[in-house]
Amino acid sequence: MAFEGLSERLQKVFSTLRGKGKLSEDDVRKVMREVRMALLEADVNFDVVKNFVKQVRERALGAEVMDSLSPSQQVIKIVDDELTKLMGEEAVPLNKSPHIPTIIMMVGLQGAGKTTTAGKLAKYLINNEKARPIFIAGDVYRPAAIEQLKTVAEQVGAPVYEEGTDKDPVDIVKNGLAKAAENKNDYVIIDTAGRLEIDDKLMDELTRIKDLAHPNEILFVADSMTGQVAAKVAHGFDEQLDITGVVLTKLDGDTRGGAALSIRAVTGKPIKFIGQGEKLDQLDVFHPDRMANRILG
Ligand code: GDP
Description:
Layout: H1 4-15, H2 25-41, H3 46-62, H4 71-86, E1 102-107, H5 114-129, E2 133-138, H6 143-156, E3 160-161, H7 169-183, E4 187-192, H8 200-213, E5 217-223, H9 228-241, E6 245-249, H10 258-267, E7 271-275, E8 283-285, H11 288-296
Parallel strand pairs: 1-4, 1-5, 2-3, 2-4, 5-6, 6-7
Antiparallel strand pairs: 7-8
Helix pairs in contact: 1-2, 2-3, 3-4, 4-11, 5-6, 7-8, 9-10
This protein binds guanosine-5'-diphosphate.
Guanosine-5'-diphosphate binds at residues 108, 110-116, 148, 194, 221, 249-250, 252-253, 275-278, 282.
């Protein structure tokens, strides 16, 4: 279960409050110290933690006591509300083009889960909208990447446009888009190359693909297990590409939950989907309120 560490830690904090009467300023201070520790241990970005704790403290101290809730329940509710707010409040749907095709560009570091998520997204669109997506194989550096995309595509029943590994990916994308127009595909999902870390050459290539394709969605795919690093890398991609959304992968294995809490605050961009397993149906729409509940356990 994701967030085990964080949720256990927070529950322990709140259990010390249960049954108490009115909370004193000292109680609030103690609780906030524990919340702060819990978030830092969960690898949430330091500035994000600082702001979060400040928000909760101000609200907790200034709150009118509600008759229906005990003071401790009230603090828990404020934390719940603020966690939800931190992650963006509402689920944000995929950007759609007014005319076909809607173009989705997947970006991210190598191993983050781009290709898997491209497949999951296609399956999601096929299941929910009877969509007819086509993939474009834009990762020309790893022959295995094209094979992997083809395997995924076969599993979801969608075609792949590819030209092997010898051509400029920008040309491949251009030809792929022409193919999509000819086939009247309603979605084009562009898989792009990743690297182990951000580098100028990759960013330049991704920028050229973006300028050619004018994607409706640039989805940054982030491995949630990398915590704060995921948020930092997201910021880097956003600065270069002005991403439109984030997919957080591997939440099934993430016991800390730092990335989910930091990424929205650091980039200002919404998390749109979460990956919760290797299988192609393990993609879910991201709901900030549900995630906050999950974190609070
Ligand atoms: P890419 O290099 O960014 O294209 O990453 P891949 O799509 O090849 O994924 C890298 C590894 O992460 C593969 O072994 C995937 O099966 C795995 N993976 C991707 N998404 C998830 C997820 O949500 N949960 C788990 N447990 N594994 C995932």
